[in-house]
Amino acid sequence: MSADFRHFLVRLAIDPEAYGQFLADPAASAREGGLSDAQLDVLTGGDQNRLYAALTSDLADERNQGER
Amino acid sequence: MNGENLVVVGTGIRAIGQLTVETIAWIKSADRVLYVVSDPVAEEAIRTLNPEGAESLLPYYDENKLRSETYREIVEVAMVYLRQGLRVCVAVYGHPGVLAVAPHEMIRRARAEGFTARMLPAISAEDCLFADLGVDQVGGCSSYEATDFLLNTRIIDPASHLILWQIGGLGDATYHKYDYNVRGLDQLARKLAAYYGPNHQVTLYEAAMFPGVEPLIRSGPIYHLPHGRPTPNSTMYVPPLSQAQPDLAIRQELGMSG
Q1: DSSP per-residue codes, B163-187
Q2: B222, B193 in Cβ contact below 8 A?
Q3: Distances, alpha carbon B14 to alpha carbons A48, B188, B211, in Å
Q4: Which of A29, B96, B152, B229 is the most buried (most CB within 10 A)?
Q5: Cβ neighbours of residue B81 under 8 Å, at least 6 residues apart?
């Protein structure tokens, strides 16, 4: 679930309006951004390790493919 | 002011909320963005803002490799692009000028070779610490890199705040992706205890990387420090032991005795 999850968070990082909407109503913002319930759960769960893992789980695979 | 060849920026501790408008603009407009960040959102943001020019500096970091060697190499990478006539943006996590050898050296080298170069301020771990621990610098604050503090003789003022950066990498000059080979916690505890006593409470602090996540804050007495297992990104905070002694002569001279 990493790539779309990262794209959603990038939008929060570079678009203050999107971040404002997220702060006001995380669930509505996540739904509008196309996140699943599981992704919303990770995002609002307050667990940094879980968030980091969810954001990076596909990167190792991508890098390995790139090295071939 | 706006035509720099080299701009060094920081992405803060968490990209969501701490990327400044100015930093975003420079990342977007550079020909080449050289970056080293630990926050996966920051990395993706850089690659989104500048898909053609983004280049990670992480390949220059290797397990057990001296960080000083990596710094020399990445400075040279930036210089190569500058000499090609490209506008270069270097993005690092935190504040680019705080405990950041390579960014300062890039600025110095670039200017020495006739390029225009600028560093932009950003949010550092210390800034996050002030906010999360409610520390007000009004009583003074000393701030050291932990290994530097340990290996050198410093004058400690127990009436002001003390911050030791990179306590999680104490005594280890090499790079590690996960855990550092922390050495010297016993000696550090001894050094601090000489000023504060062994029972003075200190805090190991790590800022949150994502919104909605609480910072890691663990407190305990100095004597327990050798068993504290600081995380790689930890910063140590030592609160004042006492209030500063008033300078009565100056107060009297200025009529500020209250």
Answers
A1: EEETGGGTT--B--SS------HHH
A2: yes
A3: 11, 29, 8
A4: B96
A5: B31, B32, B34, B88
Active site annotation includes B205: no
Nearest-CB residue to A12 (from B16, B49, B208): B16
B93 is annotated as an active-site residue: yes
Tally A–B CB contacts below 8 A.
54
Write out pLDDT tens, residues B186-215. 999 999 999 999 999 999 999 999 999 999
Residues of A in contact with B42 (CB under 8 A): 13
| Interval B235-253: pLDDT, tens | 999 999 999 999 999 999 9
Burial-class residue B2 by CB neighbours within 10 Å (0-12, 13-18, 19+).
Answer: exposed
Q: Which of B35, B60, B61, B93 is catalytic?
A: B93
B71 given a catalytic annotation: yes
pLDDT in tens, B8-50: 999 999 999 999 999 999 999 999 999 999 889 999 999 999 9
Q: Does A1 touch chain B (CB under 8 A)?
A: no
| Interface ipTM > 0.85 | yes
Q: Collect all residues of chain A within an 8 Å Cβ-Cβ radius of residue B15.
A: 13
